């Protein structure tokens, strides 16, 4: 394992023992610094305490947890997970019943409210705040009707902390620090919850990058990260601005996408951002690109095909591209269990990940879900887990998994069982639960690529109308990009996933909304004048 030599900026953020906010560019070591801080804090905690480490996605949380636990480091009773799972496990399930009565564990958790459920609420909310929750009796009525709406979890948690002495006491007694990654994607309710937890006495660390804000459509607002940087009384501000991941020419290109006045980094090497127009459709583009991958492998530019990622704004583009790719590949899509989005569905996903090997050991599952059970039960749980790994018959797998889910505390899983039946029936879904193979080229949307890094990026969808998203105006020539700021950040995220080289691909044919092919025009992003001289065109 290579040793980590922190820069002065990184070391200062690692050493600071007060509440801090870190703003950082892509590849500057945000995750690395968070890991170092957590590993520095946990040895000094008593065995019943831990830190709260919140990340935006489950994948990011697994990655952070793995990096914190490297070399058998004991992270004590730390929580690693998304903000929704923190709210649910640590506040809503144990404490909401004490304020609103009833049993939160009996409620159905829904990602989106259907039209009937929406009728309970007097307003239309994207991601409600605690004030909205307190002033609209519909939220309690929704709970009384057995519904817990995920978008209201942060507001509900703040409501609980404001109204329950025992909830406040519990968080203080159990946790010493709170960390939140990707703070630029926090909603107002999540921001207020973070501040509240800090006010309880925990030392707080928020980490983020305004320019990587890509979830504004669901209520996230980068302003909250900015607000922390200006709150000098409560947060020391640290900036990390050295990109350790990307070749300087990639940093220059990506930074100029955001800021036409960005002062370029001087470098003597070639430029490793390429633009390529490929004749035909996305399928044709894949047929064209496949020999490039063979060539890179042959010349040892990359060690494995999995070092190459194909990124696109739209999943449908990746699907079309995949039909022409001659290499083994993996297309990351949401499985039917992700679509359900409940806590139970998440655990079920992990059981499948364990069955198919992406979660390597039974111990990983035990540490995550069964740590609170008496030690004498562990041998039996290990045996049951091994049983699901070996099980080849679907209904027997479901029965065994249901037994484990019951042990964790779930008692209703019919919807999840049906999702597992669907997954089992389709190889492309089953594949999502297996470890990535070295020979698999990785295909994913730009949204899903956040936080990841690859040697080579092929960035699709560089046609006008595809990316940035464009909609028709009153006249045919009207230019109307409804989410330009967010799409610009998304483009920036995509380009900065590349270590060695980024290739921007435009196809001469583009499929329109009706599914018909027509001649494409270059994307708005390819016309930005500040990018001249910062890329090579390849033919
Ligand atoms: N001081 C350092 N020296 C050399 N490499 C480093 C250093 N700090 C971080 N790195 C490497 O740089 C890469 C990016 O680090 P990391 O993933 O922590 O960045 P990040 O800021 O979380 O990235 P992003 O926001 O783009 O996902 C990693 O491969 C990491 O190992």
Automatic annotation (TrEMBL):
<keyword id="KW-0378">Hydrolase</keyword>
<dbReference type="GO" id="GO:0043138">
    <property type="term" value="F:3'-5' DNA helicase activity"/>
</dbReference>
<dbReference type="InterPro" id="IPR000212">
    <property type="entry name" value="DNA_helicase_UvrD/REP"/>
</dbReference>
<keyword id="KW-0547">Nucleotide-binding</keyword>
<dbReference type="Pfam" id="PF00580">
    <property type="entry name" value="UvrD-helicase"/>
</dbReference>
<dbReference type="InterPro" id="IPR014017">
    <property type="entry name" value="DNA_helicase_UvrD-like_C"/>
</dbReference>
<feature type="binding site">
    <location>
        <begin position="24"/>
        <end position="31"/>
    </location>
    <ligand>
        <name>ATP</name>
    </ligand>
</feature>
<keyword id="KW-0413">Isomerase</keyword>
<feature type="domain" description="UvrD-like helicase ATP-binding">
    <location>
        <begin position="3"/>
        <end position="247"/>
    </location>
</feature>
<keyword id="KW-0067">ATP-binding</keyword>
<dbReference type="GO" id="GO:0000725">
    <property type="term" value="P:recombinational repair"/>
</dbReference>
<dbReference type="GO" id="GO:0005524">
    <property type="term" value="F:ATP binding"/>
</dbReference>
<dbReference type="Pfam" id="PF13361">
    <property type="entry name" value="UvrD_C"/>
</dbReference>
<dbReference type="InterPro" id="IPR014016">
    <property type="entry name" value="UvrD-like_ATP-bd"/>
</dbReference>
<dbReference type="InterPro" id="IPR027417">
    <property type="entry name" value="P-loop_NTPase"/>
</dbReference>
<dbReference type="GO" id="GO:0003677">
    <property type="term" value="F:DNA binding"/>
</dbReference>
<protein>
    <recommendedName>
        <fullName>DNA 3'-5' helicase</fullName>
        <ecNumber>5.6.2.4</ecNumber>
    </recommendedName>
</protein>
<dbReference type="GO" id="GO:0016887">
    <property type="term" value="F:ATP hydrolysis activity"/>
</dbReference>
<keyword id="KW-0347">Helicase</keyword>
